[in-house]
Write a structure and sequence with these properties.
CATH architecture: 3-Layer(aba) Sandwich
Distance between the termini: 36 Å
CATH superfamily: Alpha/Beta hydrolase fold, catalytic domain
Number of helices: 10
Order of helices and strands: EHEHEEEHHEHEHEHHEHEEH
Number of domains: 1
Largest sheet: 11 strands, mixed
């Protein structure tokens, strides 16, 4: 296992349905099925790939959606017997749990997009709208960039991102891009997404295609957060350097992802004053990237010193590596460096970080 990836996984496609209806010929992949057992899903059928597009009609899809004029929508609540087996994964998003009258349920989609890394046979992004999402109110975007040896759907399931993001500020929409040219590989290649403007185009296309977000423009969304795990620093650097996205990023979190500190330095320098004032936030939780993180910490201190900016918002916690970062530690702290040797009992410190810390980060933004 590479230090820059999570745990290896074999992607599997579900068996072909024995039905002539178009709806029944979509295929549910084993790596994503448990993640959607308790969510309301929508399937769109107006822009399905042809067999000649990607070599086979037997593709690992949960949903492929498009919002063209031919869109058909179908609400699916998966079997509650299945759901009960995974209820802990989506605590608070279970269909059988009482919800305030009129409150929108949590919803998730996997999409095919024109702004993609390549024609790789996987969905190009996963989008999650939280319970109670109100399209009439301002929207916050949280982007999760996964590491090696996983995919957008698998990383969403493994880290229980839907459950963890529930603690974020209201109307926080989670986007998990499939940034790898070859999803699940040990590779930082981003394919088409390495071109200028492609990530901004991807996010705008997601807004255009997601029910509840349609009609919204990226230029109107002021609050973007990025959580990068491991090799997710590759797309994160591209997003920060994007003239449309970079200035909108108000929260940047590296989960053992500081493999190239120089790639973040431009954003840190540009936003040093906002970080010192608590108007933006930077968090680096590290284990395998200890050396790189120490260099990054030195750079930040140097920047603050050169500009005579206050450092009261800086927290450095290296002596409690066996204790997870606590939400109360982040109160009034806008620059956080935390060494973490904690594990979830199944993986090492590196692979454990998404499952341990996304909730803490999300809730700290309230």
């Amino acid at each position: 296992m590479s230090a820059r990836g999570t745990h290896p996984a074999n992607e599997s496609t579900a068996a072909t349905a024995q039905d002539s209806n178009l709806e029944s010929r979509l295929h549910l992949s084993k790596d994503t099925q448990p993640a959607f057992n308790s969510l309301e899903l929508y399937r769109g059928f107006s822009d399905l790939p042809k067999p000649t597009d990607q070599g086979s009609a037997n593709l690992p899809r949960v949903d492929v959606m498009d919002t063209g004029s031919a869109l058909k929508r179908e609400t699916i609540i998966l079997a509650q017997a299945q759901e009960r087996g995974n209820s802990k994964d989506f605590q608070g998003d279970r269909p059988n749990q009482t919800k305030p009258e009129g409150e929108a349920p949590a919803r998730a989609w996997e999409m095919n997009l024109k702004h993609n890394s390549d024609r790789h046979g996987h969905p190009d992004a996963l989008v999650y709208l939280p319970r109670g999402f109100d399209p009439g109110k301002p929207v916050n975007l949280m982007i999760y960039n996964h590491g090696w040896n996983t995919t957008a759907g698998k990383s969403y399931r493994d880290a229980k991102l839907g459950e963890q993001i529930a603690g974020a500020p209201p109307n926080t929409v989670l986007v998990v891009p499939e940034w790898q040219q070859s999803p699940g590989a040990e590779s930082g290649r981003q394919g088409n997404l390495s071109k200028p403007g492609m990530y901004a185009g991807m996010l705008q296309e997601i807004l255009d295609k997601t029910p509840g977000l349609q009609g919204k423009k990226l230029k109107d969304i002021e609050n973007i957060g990025i959580i990068s795990h491991s090799a997710g620093y590759n797309p994160t650097e591209k997003m920060l350097a994007d003239g449309t996205l970079g200035p909108k990023v108000k929260s940047l979190t590296l989960l053992d992802s500081a493999y190239n500190p120089a790639g973040m330095e431009g954003w840190l320098r540009t936003n040093a004053t906002a970080l010192a004032r608590g108007e933006k936030r930077f968090t680096n939780i590290y284990h395998g990237t200890s050396g790189e993180s120490q260099r990054q910490l030195k750079t930040i201190k140097q920047i603050l010193g050169e500009r005579s900016l206050p450092q009261e918002g800086l927290l450095v916690d290296q002596g409690n590596a066996n204790r997870p970062l606590q939400p109360e530690q982040m109160a009034n702290k806008s620059i956080v460096f935390k060494r973490s040797d904690v594990t979830d009992g199944k993986q090492g410190p590196h692979g454990s970080m998404p499952g341990l810390y996304v909730k803490t980060i999300a809730s700290s933004l309230r």
